[in-house]
Amino acid sequence: MTELKDKDKDTKAIKAVIQKFFDAINAADTDALGSHFSANANLTIIRQEPPLPPSSSDSKATADEEVIKVVIRTTIEKFIALLEDGKKQREGKPGPELHEAPDLDGTDVKIDALFASAWSPFKVTFDGALHHYGVMVYTLGKDNGEWKIEGLTQSYRRTPGWERSESVL
Predict the structure, then answer these.
(1) For residues 95 and 32, what is the distance between their CA atoms, to the nearest angstrom?
(2) Residue 28: Cβ-neighbour burial (10 angstroms; 0-12, 13-18, 19+)
(3) How far is CA 156 from the centre of its chain?
(4) Of 127, 141, 133, residue with least CA distance to 159
(5) Which of 6, 17, 21, 115 has the highest local Cβ count within 10 Å?
(6) How far apart are the C-alpha atoms of 24 and 27, rounded to whole Å?
């Protein structure tokens, strides 16, 4: 019974890390963002093409049309430096209101002692309109009682109409 309670406690703690990750992204707080990662953690962002609506049962792409593009593969430190540079470049300039949100109810967490993985759906809106959606796959480690992100892979697909948008990774 204790093992089940511990896993439930760890699952809640991991989902809290995921929420804090998104809170830091939405606040453009790179210090907070970095605090959720282990040193030298890896980050990969891949995009699926072509753009499709989330409920794409009516508009499936053919196998010949579907491709995966690696947008970035780096360490978290280098990614945070890129975010800082982008923040400085956008400072004082108008732009869309960006909001990223996880689906914590749809998040699947697997735990093996001090190691865990989480498959977490998410969506990103620009001025309230869905821009892209996908899955964040987190690899986490528990160090000194605290869960930290060791690696993160984001797979996303744009919704139709945003094909030429390069404003986000």
Answers:
(1) 23
(2) middle
(3) 9
(4) 133
(5) 21
(6) 5
Return the CATH number at 146.
Answer: 3.10.450.50
The parent domain of residue 81 ranges over 2-158
Query: What's this model's pTM, rounded to 2 decimal places?
Result: 0.86
Mean pLDDT, contiguous 10-residue spans, the chain (169 residues): 74 98 95 96 93 68 80 94 88 87 98 97 94 96 97 93 56
> What pLDDT score was predicted for residue 50?
83
Residue type at 125 in one-letter notation: T
Gyration radius of the chain's alpha carbons:
17
The structure tokens listed for 132 are 């892209």
Tokens standing for residue 42: 């890896």
Q: What integer pLDDT is reported at residue 103 of this predicted model? A: 98
Identify the pLDDT of residue 52.
85
**CB distance 68 to 48 below 8 Å:** yes
**Which residues, including other chains, have CB under 8 Å from residue 130's CB and lie 6 or more apart?**
54, 123, 124, 159
In a domain, 164, yes or no: no
